[in-house]
Amino acid sequence: MTISPIVELEQLGKVYPTRTGDVTALTDVDLRIDDGEFVAIVGPSGCGKTTLLKILAGLEHHTSGVGTLGGRELGSGAADVGMVFQKATLLPWQDVRSNVLLPVSLQRRPSKADRAAADELLEMVGLTDFASKRPHELSGGMQQRAAICRALVHEPSMLLMDEPFGALDAMTRDLLNVEVNRIWRETHKTVVLITHSIPEAVFLAQRVIVMSPRPGRIVDQVEVPFGPERTLELLGTPEFGALCSTIRRHFEKEAAA
């Protein structure tokens, strides 16, 4: 069975004009992401990872090349995506359920079905008992779980995650990675993750995209051979360590150059 791509990018580029001259953030990016695939993007700081994510989200416009999302040209309208940022950015005066429903509330009055969908998502991430709590009553990890629910409540075709667990402690981060893997398997969403953590990328993704220093371009695409379900035991296996080392060598070469 042929899987259709949800994202197709060809020779995509992004240039920012500044008072001292143009700054090229991305150049000649060719990328295909299949429907339902989990892709992670890694690269050094400033390589354009977040810029690429913003272009997919419709928050930035590319300046060269072509790209489509769900068959529509990038930038031609509101992107059918949900976003999770490094900070949960929940509204402090709203309870957790209302925060999850925010994308719906911005468009219309939430219906009974919308509230049921929010409650189902909260149950999926173990936050049912916290639906009426304010964000400050939740731990950082719980706030990020709520943020993931908010990104999924309007049933987007793709979930974009920009360093969502970078501010959390290592143990919480590992547990949330297991949670994200489970959510991906249960929802069958296409996911694009930006991360500075090579182990996180390998643990979560089916394919890891490696980007060069600015101007960012794709220098490698590494297939991850592990099955869809990932457990923390995987982190200690020789195969996992070897794959992380393969990806890390790209950055060691850059550092030595």
From TrEMBL:
Gene3D superfamilies for the chain: P-loop containing nucleotide triphosphate hydrolases
Pfam families for the chain: ABC_tran
Matches recorded under SMART domains: AAA
Record has Cytoplasm as a keyword: no
Positions of the ABC transporter domain: 7-238
InterPro entries: AAA+_ATPase, ABC_transporter-like_ATP-bd, ABC_transporter-like_CS, ABC_transporter_ATP-bind, P-loop_NTPase
Molecular function terms, GO-annotated: ATP binding; ATP hydrolysis activity
SUPFAM superfamilies linked to this entry: P-loop containing nucleoside triphosphate hydrolases (SSF52540)
UniProt keywords, alphabetically: ATP-binding, Nucleotide-binding, Transport
Domain of life (superkingdom): Bacteria
Record's keyword annotation contains Transport: yes
Protein's name in the database: ABC transporter ATP-binding protein
Species of the source: Ruania alkalisoli
